[in-house]
Write a structure and sequence with these properties.
The complex is a heterodimer. Chain A is mainly alpha-helical. Helix content of chain A is about 65%, strand content about 5%. Chain A has a single domain, classed as Ferritin (Up-down Bundle), CATH 1.20.1260. In chain B, strand 1 and strand 2 form a beta hairpin. Chain B is elongated, with a radius of gyration of 27 Å. The relative contact order of chain B is 0.13. The chains are: A mainly alpha, B alpha+beta.
Chain lengths: ~260, ~120
């Protein structure tokens, strides 16, 4: 791997690891507050899965010369985070969190499925493990979103509001980053535009089949979003929501960075 | 069509219902109960480990997976609607008790005096 490929790969790994870490924390905010205890347990367990993915990705960065995973997670300032804005938004009502999970896990499934073919073996192996866990997430999210979208008037309105609010942010999960072309040329990682296209083709017909209105249109085999994607996160430009989450997560570690756990 | 104002901060259910003009007629969050059976290895019995609330059997499988199989091995799950189970009553517990001596039904009633010896047949 050339030096510029390595730099591009690190840029991508930070983006993916930070996405997993931040969404994992947002999910964990429902622990003890879920709508019913069974769903509380399932959602909390999936939060742990996402944290596990974050640890795997941070560990890969550590192998490539970056700091320890704990240091990366707990001691970086907000502008060093490369997560998309989609994952940092406050948890909202349960419809918002669940819809975000469906949109995010759909993106994760496409992304890590493609990464199982990476020419970088450590990443391909990690991707294979992540894909395996994502199978359950996908089944869980699609089943529950479908039932709520087709449930009562209230549940349908809540799911539609969540989708309308989140759609521009979820397009931002595929925000371009410097060096993506180098990674594509070296077969290390897929092209973000290709991923976004696969994701749109996966999500749009599904959401429409649940009776939801999706701000996108179909042309031939491909779907295109009708709203502008919200970018910024991959370049370290975040909202107040990230400051708020990092204050909560980092408080204890920053109080005594040398404490043993 | 009622307008629904959305903020991405937590919105309590009361607020959402107020926007809809009060609870809906079918506003009922009590889901049916489903019995969960896990099979630890292929060919083994499915053992009842508890129950979950879920809107239907398919959803019950998904919720039972996280509730019951995270800390023990499982290769297969069964879900049965609790309503579909026929059960005896604890008031009738006496039907399982043997009032008179029926120890002859127990294999312990047979005493093995001497192990059977293999005999040579010439």
């Amino acid at each position: 791997m050339t030096a510029s490929e390595t730099a591009a790969l690190k840029t991508m790994l930070f983006a993916l690891a930070d996405d997993e870490f931040i969404i994992g924390h947002r999910m964990s905010e429902w622990t003890g507050l879920g709508p019913i205890i069974e769903e509380d347990i399932a959602f909390s367990s999936m939060a742990q899965d996402e944290m596990g993915h974050a640890l795997g990705l941070y560990s890969l960065l550590h192998q490539m010369g970056e700091d320890e995973p704990d240091t990366l997670a707990f001691l970086r300032p907000a502008d060093a985070f490369r997560n998309s804005i989609c994952v940092e938004l406050s948890r909202g009502d349960y419809a918002f969190s669940l819809m975000r999970q469906l949109l995010y896990d759909g993106a994760e499934a496409e992304r890590f499925e493609a990464l199982t073919q990476s020419s970088f073996p450590d990443l391909a192996n990690l991707a294979a493990k992540i894909v395996q866990e994502e199978r359950y997430h996908w089944i869980h999210n699609t089943m529950l979103v479908q039932r709520l979208a087709k449930g009562t008037e209230e549940s349908r309105i809540r799911m539609q509001s969540a989708l309308s609010e989140l759609f521009p942010y979820s397009l931002g999960l595929f925000e371009p980053f410097g060096g993506n072309d180098l990674l594509v040329a070296a077969n290390i990682a897929p092209d973000e535009n290709t991923l976004r296209q696969r994701w749109l083709n996966r999500m749009c017909p599904l959401l429409i089949s649940y009776g939801l209105a999706v701000p996108a249109h179909q042309k031939g085999d491909n779907w295109t979003g009708d709203v502008e994607a919200v970018f910024g996160g991959r370049n370290g430009r975040h909202t107040e929501h990230l400051m708020n989450i990092l204050d909560a997560i980092q408080l204890l570690r920053k109080a005594d960075p040398k404490a043993a756990w | 069509m009622k307008r629904y104002s959305f903020t991405c901060y937590h919105q309590p259910i009361e607020e959402g219902l107020a926007l809809l003009g009060g609870p809906l007629p079918d506003h009922d969050t009590q889901w049916p109960e489903w019995e969960v059976f896990i099979q630890e290895r292929r060919g083994g019995s499915h053992i009842n480990v508890g129950a979950v609330h879920a809107p239907d059997g398919e959803m019950a499988l998904i919720l039972a997976k996280e509730t019951f199989t995270r800390r023990q091995p499982c290769v297969n799950l069964w879900i049965v609607n609790t309503q579909d189970i026929h059960s005896t009553r604890y008031e009738d517990e006496a039907i399982f008790q043997s009032t008179f001596d029926r120890s002859y039904r127990n294999t312990t009633g047979f005493k093995l005096e001497k192990p059977v010896q293999a005999t040579e047949v010439s």
